[in-house]
Amino acid sequence: MSGEPGHPRVGTKDFLSVLDVSGTELAALLDLAARLKRERALGAAAPTAAALAGKHVALIFEKPSLRTRATFEIAVRELGAHALHVPPSSIDGEREPLEDIARNLERWVHGVVVRTFAQAKAAAIGAAASRLHVINALTDEEHPCQALADFLTLREQWGSWQGHTLAYVGDGNNVAISLAHAAAMLGVSFRIASPAGYELPPAAVAAARAVATGGATLTLVRDPREGVQGADAIYTDVWTSMGQEAEADERKRLFAPYQVNAALMAAAAPGARFLHCLPAHRGEEVTADVFESSASVVFDQAENRLHTQKALLLMLLG
C-alpha cells in the first residue's frame, strides 16, 4: 500500500475478490470509506470531489442491479469522473473475443465495473488489459463489493471488528464467500449454518482460514440455532439467487428451517444486528418483523455501498 497520506492505494490492479487486497489494505479502504461518508455532506467542496477528474469508468451489467449500479454511478460522478454504460451484449462473446473487447476498453477508459455470471469472465477482462482496472460488481462465485459495505456497517455498530462473531444462515453462495474472506482478514469469527449440499465451498473455507487474523475462526454447522448462538450479528440472503429460478421450489423446502425470525434472533447475543444484502423476500428467508425491527441495519448496508465503492475507486484509480 502506498500513496499520499490519507489517500492510500492498493497493490492490485483489479478487485475481483476480497482476497486481492491484504488485510492492511482492506482496513485502510474501510477507514477511507468512513472518511468519505463524513465528507459527502460537503458536496462539491469535498476534498475528493475532483480526485478522479478526467477519468472514465465503464459499467457493464449482465445481471439486474439496483444498489450496485446506482451506487457505482454516483460514486464515479462524486469523484469527478465520468461513467460510461456499455451494453451487456458487448461482452457476450458473440461478436468478438472477450480479450479484444478488454484491449479496446483500456484505450478509452481507466476502469470497468463488471456484473456478470462467471468469475472467469471478469478475470479474463483483467488479464487481457494490462492498464485497465477491473472491479467485480458480482459474479456467481463472489460479491466482494457487498462485503466491503457490510463490514463498514458492522464497525459502525460494534465500534471495532475483532472479538466479534458474525453468523450467516442459508446458502453458502457468493455473498457468503466474500463475507467469509473479509471476516477472516478483519479478525471477525464467522459461523455459517447451511443445509447439506449448500455449504460454503471447501476452497473458500481454506482461503478464509489461510488469511485469518486476530484469532478469527470459521465454523460450518447444519443447525441454524447452533450457528447463531451468542453471535453479535445474523446475516441472511435470498434462498434462490439469479440464475437458480428452476430450483426455487426445492430450495424453499430445504431452507424453510433456516428462516431468520424472532426466535432465531433471540438465540443470538443481546443487541445482535440483522443484515441482508437485499433484495429481501419477507416471509421467506426473513420475517417482516425482523426485517423491520430496530435490530435491522439493511439500509445502512445499502447506503454504505456508495461510500465503500468510492473508496475502492479512489484506491484503484486515484
Binned, the helix content reads 40-55%
Number of DSSP helical runs: 12
Walk across the major sheet and give the strand order.
Answer: 9-8-7-10-11
| Relative strand content | 5-15%
**Largest pleated sheet:** 5 strands, parallel
Mean pLDDT: 96
Q: Give the terminus-to-terminus CA distance.
A: 13 Å
Number of E-type strands: 11
Q: What radius of gyration results from the CA coordinates?
A: 19 Å
Q: Estimate the global geometry from the Cα principal axes.
A: globular
Task: Note the run of SSEs as H and E.
Answer: EEHEHEHEHEHEHEHEHEHHEHH
Q: Which residue ranges are poorly predicted, with pLDDT under 50 across at least 5 consecutive positions?
A: 1-5
Structural class: alpha/beta
Name its key features.
single chain, four-stranded parallel β-sheet, 41% helix, alpha/beta, 318 residues, 12 helices, globular
Structure report:
The structure is a single chain. The chain is of the alpha/beta class and 318 residues long. It is 41% helix and 14% strand. The chain has helices spanning 23-39, 67-78, 98-108, 119-128, 144-158, 174-186, 202-210, 224-228, 248-255, 262-267, 288-291, 298-317; strands spanning 3-4, 7-8, 56-61, 82-85, 111-115, 133-136, 165-169, 189-193, 218-221, 233-236, 273-276. The longest helix is centred in the last third of the chain and has 20 residues, at 298-317. Mean pLDDT is 96; it is low at 1-5.
Topology:
Layout: E1 3-4, E2 7-8, H1 23-39, E3 56-61, H2 67-78, E4 82-85, H3 98-108, E5 111-115, H4 119-128, E6 133-136, H5 144-158, E7 165-169, H6 174-186, E8 189-193, H7 202-210, E9 218-221, H8 224-228, E10 233-236, H9 248-255, H10 262-267, E11 273-276, H11 288-291, H12 298-317
Parallel strand pairs: 3-4, 3-5, 5-6, 7-8, 7-10, 8-9, 10-11
Antiparallel strand pairs: 1-2
Helix pairs in contact: 1-5, 1-12, 2-12, 3-4, 5-6, 5-12, 6-7
